[in-house]
Design goal:
There is one protein chain. This protein is mainly alpha-helical. It has one domain. Helix content is about 70%, strand content about 0%. The protein contains 5 helices and no strands. Helix 2 runs antiparallel to helix 3, helix 2 packs antiparallel against helix 5 and helix 3 packs antiparallel against helix 4. The chain is extended. Keywords: Membrane, Transmembrane, Transmembrane helix.
């Protein structure tokens, strides 16, 4: 009976082919750092927008002043042009609006000039005129918002009656019931539009006030000013002189 033939054995000096080994290379630390930086950037993006950290605070404050100046000068020119066109038939409301806009422009230019001087002179207290102006406008905005809330909470008839009474007092002409009804409907629509404008105005003024206040804090931190010392005599007697290096007696 024939025996099965075995395959020839490989020579003793030969090597087996290497087994495929898959090795996971470690990730470079730079990739993890890059990914964490991008994640932190997007996480801090809302804070950067709200806290004016994306650009110098002084530029934010100045751009807000420029925006207010452009809008105010346009409103002043429009009112002045209307006043010139209706010079033969002047109305008190147009004159009052023109005077108010003129006073506002003077205050705006003064506070903006003080803000620029604070940047170049590095004096934080020169920012106060701008802060006072913005704080006053913010208070006025909240007062108007309170009136709007009261209007839509059930006091619309009373407020409309006051407005119609003021209107009749200026014109010296009583209104009919139909005119009163039309004015009531118009005042309701005006109040709704005014509510949205007041909310946007309050948000704008709050952001501007935060930017100006942050600019003042940066000046106080980077350029501390001299504070005068009181010239009055101290209330407590002076402490006796001591030498910490001198050994105390036992």
């Amino acid at each position: 009976m024939a025996r099965p033939v075995r395959p020839p054995a490989p020579p003793s000096g030969s090597r087996r082919p290497p087994v495929n080994v898959y090795v996971t290379l470690p990730q470079e630390p730079g990739d993890e750092r890059r990914g964490s930086v991008v994640a932190q950037y997007f996480a801090a993006l809302p804070k950067m927008v709200c806290c004016f950290c994306c650009c110098p605070v002084f530029k934010c404050a100045i751009w807000l002043c420029i925006l207010e100046f452009v809008v105010s000068i346009y409103a002043w020119y429009t009112t002045f042009n209307l006043l010139i066109l209706t010079f033969e038939d002047l109305q008190i409301k147009d004159v009052v609006v023109l005077l108010m806009l003129t006073g506002w422009l003077i205050a705006l230019c003064s506070s903006s000039g003080a803000l620029i001087a604070a940047q170049y002179k590095k004096k934080a207290h020169w920012v106060l005129p701008r802060l006072i102006l913005q704080a006053g406008l913010l208070v006025i905005g909240f007062l108007v918002l309170f009136v709007e809330i009261a209007y839509f909470s059930g006091a619309s008839q009373r407020i409309n009656g006051w407005v119609i009474w003021i209107y009749e007092s200026f014109l010296d002409e009583p209104l009919t019931k139909e005119h009163r009804k039309e004015i009531h409907n118009e005042l309701k629509n005006i109040a709704l539009v005014l509510l949205m404008i007041v909310i946007a105005f309050i948000v704008y003024m709050a952001l501007g006030l935060c930017a100006t206040r942050k600019f003042q804090k940066d000046l106080e931190r980077d350029y501390p000013q001299f504070r005068p010392v009181s010239g009055q005599a101290p209330s407590a007697p002076p402490q006796p002189p001591t030498n910490p290096n001198y050994p105390k007696a036992i």
